[in-house]
Here is the input.
Amino acid sequence: MPSIDLERYRAPRPHRADAARNFDALLEAAREVFTDRGFDAPIEDVAERAGVGIATLYRNFPTREVLVENVYIVEIQAVLAEADASLELPPWEGLASWLRRFVSYLGTKRAVTTAIDPDSEVYQACRAALSEAGTPLLRRAQASGDVRKDIDDDDVARYIMGAAAMNFASEQQRSRMLDVLLDGLRAR
Here is the structure.
């Protein structure tokens, strides 16, 4: 895991079991609502989907921005966990697995990622954590001879961000095109 502690940017999770369940339900509901309907979806829809009142939502997340930032952090932490798990795989498989997870995340979470202020401290911390998580995977695959040595972290990040921004006709097309893009990273 990266050295950047994203937990410090999250809203405090309540200690009481019922309050903690509500907190978690709100984050999950917000993720679903923002993914399905965009960042401008009524905040009341989040509370309704979570099965709580609007006051409970605001007690945990005082503004829409705080809620979105928390959803974003949770999603980024899942991608970071995937990077950690990918270190257990052989070098090429580890890098490819993590990049697939990253593209999948970016492709399905556009509403959340576009709602975050790119100049915010939370966004910058998440971006740095992602970069820090991907670097060992890239370096390891380069050291093993699986990946071209003439590319760096920034090249790969731009490459993958471009792939994630594409609109694909189907998940099968996304997977096929990602295979082609990943093949471009391979050493010959």
About this structure: The domain at 9-62 is CATH 1.10.10.60 (Arc Repressor Mutant, subunit A). Residues 163 and 170 are 14 Å apart (CA to CA).
